[in-house]
Design a protein that fits this description.
By secondary structure, the protein is mainly beta. It is 0% helix and 51% strand. It has a 4-stranded antiparallel beta sheet, with no helix packed on it. The chain has a 3-stranded antiparallel beta sheet with strand order 1-2-3, with no helix packed on it.
Length: 72
């Protein structure tokens, strides 16, 4: 079964996860201090998301957890 989550970067420092099945904001991931400009889902796990911001900060998220699991 594939995930029903869509990741959306914003012009603020927020990263939002939208649930397309429920047509609602699933939750917000906080950690970036600048505009989130790029996102990529892992090919290995439907729960792992990588995000980057305008100043080059990169976070690796397990979207089941409230904080990043790694940063670059």
């Amino acid at each position: 079964e594939s995930s029903s989550l869509i990741a959306v970067g914003t012009k603020s420092d927020q990263l939002r996860l939208l649930d397309i099945r429920q047509e609602a904001n699933a939750h917000t991931l906080n950690g970036h201090s600048e505009e989130v400009t790029c996102l990529a889902w892992s090919n290995l796990s439907e729960h792992v998301l990588v995000s980057g911001d305008v100043v080059g900060t990169v976070f690796v998220w397990d979207v089941r957890k409230p904080v990043p699991i790694a940063s670059l």
